[in-house]
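User: For my dataset I need records formatted as: sequence, then structure tokens, nothing else. Please produce one.
Assistant:
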Amino acid sequence: MRAVLDVVLIVLQLYVYVIIASAILSWLVAFNVVNRYNDFVRSIWNLVTALTEPLLKPIRGVIPNFGGIDISPVILLLLIFFIQRVIEEYIYPNVF
């Protein structure tokens, strides 16, 4: 059972990196540092969007609109950090 929890923690940590990459890539596209018409950038954009949008879209539906600022990745990161902490502090020590 601990192996399953270890895998869950690793997947959550990898997802944190994907969310951060998504935010950085969206900034780079917004400030015209990279161009989405480039095939390599478009493939990375599609991958990151496909991985993050299923969890970010419901959060965007709940939080109010703050103009041009999207805080849904921050909320998702806080939720992931909370889940990781609950697993590490409460679930992991009680599993044999």
